[in-house]
Design a protein that fits this description.
single chain, four-stranded mixed beta sheet, 412 residues
Length: 412
């Protein structure tokens, strides 16, 4: 009887210990950190998901110029989100206005101190652009054509930052100062590109109106250099993160590398010459399927004299509009003729960050997709082209991507 009582007490005691330990963090077991934030993925507005997969990069049709700069190769690409359209004038204007307003707040000394003692702009103050303290942001009346009030776009400078990950990875002695780069760019698009790009051609109305007039709000922004496009992506990341302070960080918005761009452009139709999958630029009814330069220069035949609305024409199977035509698009990648020979077959990329003092050949960046002023060859998925990173053209725009965190969207 006594042994049975001791046995019962022992069971109750052990049970009490086990029950008390269930509510404790210190169980003695390897269970990982338990207070981690939940992550259920994101669905950024205006972006579509491009799933992980395999891609055969390179020309899918005859290389009519015999460039031999797109050697066929099988690669694998991790999933990402991509803007369903090129960045429009009105979307880029949000960036320009943010920079304008931030500079105005600095003029007005609208600052608060955060918990770490850093000064930050107090966006709660309402700006009055008639205030005399902001007079320096405008041109003098005798500097304008009609004597009206006009913003001096030369003041719209923005500092953006980037980390040289390659240097950090290969130089174990590198410090933060060695790998953290800070650059300042003027964010206003180069509207003069419409005149400069074409000799003996009357394009002054586009220079005066393309970025500023509401008629072109939903047209792709042009006149933006590679670094301006990079600065936009940096600002967009900060804008996204500042409104999600209690959520885990996502990846940064950025330009796609050229292989991601080609993968997205094909829309799951591997080896297809064009985003819509066919071998021709016209459909069975004879209608043109993109905005480019048909024939010997009948620009208006496809429905657009120059650029068109970013949602014009049908999207590809991933839901991406104007991956061929309208405007060529900046990519992250540096342009070298033989890149396909050297890149890895897992998430290939070829980067080179050229300084301003380096030879122009080192400043070439890949553009893809062809534009409203290009012949059909440049609309092909596998056609590679380039522009210098410090140039701005009336036929080059961009869109952003965001790396998907996880194997596949179906995992969630």
């Amino acid at each position: 009887m006594r042994n049975q009582t001791l046995h019962t007490l022992l069971i109750l005691l052990l049970g009490g210990i086990l029950l008390s330990s269930c509510g404790s963090k210190e169980t003695g077991q390897l269970i990982g950190v338990q207070d981690r934030p939940a992550w259920n993925g994101i669905n950024p507005y205006g972006m579509v998901y491009v799933p992980s997969g395999q891609l055969h990069i390179g020309q899918s049709d005859e290389d009519i110029f015999n460039t031999f700069n797109a050697k066929p190769k099988s690669v694998s690409i991790s999933g990402f989100y991509m803007d369903d359209t090129e960045i429009s004038n009105n979307e880029y204007r949000q960036f320009v206005y943010w920079v304008r307003d931030s500079i105005a707040h600095v003029y007005m000394d609208d600052f608060i101190e955060d918990e770490y003692g850093n000064q930050k702009i107090d966006w709660s103050f309402e700006l009055d652009y008639g205030d005399e303290l902001l007079a320096d942001m405008y041109l003098a009346p005798d500097q304008t054509l009609y004597g009206n009030k006009q913003l001096n776009t030369a003041v719209l400078d923005y500092e953006w930052r980037w980390v040289d990950v390659q240097k950090a990875a290969h130089d174990r002695d590198a410090s933060i100062d060695d790998v953290l780069n800070k650059e300042v760019v003027n964010v206003y698009p180069d509207t003069m590109c419409w005149v400069r790009d074409f000799k003996y051609s009357y394009n002054e109305p586009m220079t005066r109106n393309y970025f500023s007039h509401p008629a072109f709000d939903d047209y792709p922004v042009v006149g933006v250099t590679w670094k301006q496009a990079k600065a936009f992506a940096y600002w967009r990341t900060k804008l996204w993160s500042s409104n999600r302070v209690d959520e885990p960080n996502s990846e940064d918005f950025r330009l796609p590398n050229e292989y991601e761009w080609e993968f997205a452009s094909r829309g799951g139709r591997d080896m297809s010459p064009y985003p819509w999958g066919g071998y021709y630029i016209r459909n069975s009814k004879g209608c043109l399927l993109a905005n480019f330069k048909p024939g010997r220069g009948n620009y208006a035949e496809d429905g657009g004299q120059t650029t068109v609305d970013v949602y014009a024409y049908y999207p590809n199977d991933y839901g991406l509009y104007n991956m061929s035509g309208n405007v060529s698009e900046w990519t992250e990648s540096a342009y070298f003729d033989n890149s396909n020979y050297h890149v890895h077959d897992l998430n290939p990329d070829m980067k080179y960050d050229a300084d301003d003092s380096e030879p122009k050949a080192m400043k070439r960046k890949v553009i893809r997709g062809g534009s409203w002023k290009d012949i059909g060859f440049y609309l092909q998925n596998g056609t590679r082209n380039w522009e210098y990173q410090d140039t701005s053209k009336s036929y080059v725009g961009f869109r952003n991507v965001l790396t998907f965190l996880g194997r596949s969207a179906n995992d969630y």
